[in-house]
């Protein structure tokens, strides 16, 4: 019964309209960095493995999760590198190529953690900003060494870095990377970031996780026309097959010439894991909602108000991206 002066919630879920993907792993946390292109495949791969092996994915610990950094490193064709911005499709293609005919092996998150970027010497900053501070620390170190502005001995420069970040790489790896930067043998930050953020030991033995064979799918193709109805229909088809699906969409807008436009490089991807239709008991109006698994950590995903979003707004935001190909990505 509603309290005096307060109306009961007039909205209800239309019976039979709710579809929820089962056995989902915990969400990943990209922090303030643009690594959704790796966080999304990490969840899809973990879920695929749990589904194929018949294991419980809902409380998967870090020791059983695939490394977000190792996944991101598959973005480039010319060797492992770490970009702040990237493409989910390019990463998955790189992972497929890495797997060859055998199953795909990836480092464990506990061995090659994304939180290696955490600025441990800045406890006064909010936790979600630590990763940004750590990434900027690496970039500044690379720039000062590339430009010849760091006159300290290599071991001294590395020691300062070790006081700020808990890197999985060895001291020898870090010093060799700095020497290559200073000599001009390593001229881009993306390869430097990989050199100091990975450990070769994480690729062997018990430090790696085997992913059963999978087929990666993306829709629509580059030459295929798409509208909101077709996009929503494809999402529904995949949810009915109990498959989580990544949806790319515009996540930031700007005002130009009196109109809203998608801000450059504003694409983001979340995983659609459910849908339901919510109706108003008074006027009968109904609205379709999507349930999202976002890469902003468990706290964000724990809020029902933030997880369920209007489907039409999300689909429209997807169609605002300049590149409409491959808006949906999933694994089978």
Q: Label the structural class.
A: alpha+beta
**Number of continuous helical runs:** 11
Strand/helix succession:
EEHHHEHHHHEEHEEEEEHHEHE
Indicate the percent of residues in helices. 25-40%
Instruction: List unreliable stretches of 5+ residues.
Output: none
Cα shape: globular
Radius of gyration: 22 Å
Q: Would you count the extended β strands for me?
A: 12
Question: Which features does this protein show?
Answer:
single chain, 332 residues, alpha+beta, globular
Can you offer a commentary on this structure?
By secondary structure, this protein is of the alpha+beta class. 36% of the residues lie in helices and 18% in strands. It contains 11 helices and 12 strands. The chain has helices spanning 36-53, 68-72, 88-99, 127-146, 154-164, 171-183, 189-197, 228-240, 297-301, 304-307, 311-319; strands at residues 11-13, 19-20, 104-107, 208-211, 216-219, 245-250, 253-256, 259-262, 267-280, 286-293, 308-310, 328-331. Strands 1, 2, 5, 6, 9, 10, 11 and 12 form an 8-stranded antiparallel beta sheet that branches. A two-stranded antiparallel sheet has the order 3-4. A two-stranded antiparallel sheet has the order 7-8. Helix 1 (36-53) packs across helix 3 (88-99) and helix 5 crosses helix 6. The mean pLDDT is 90.
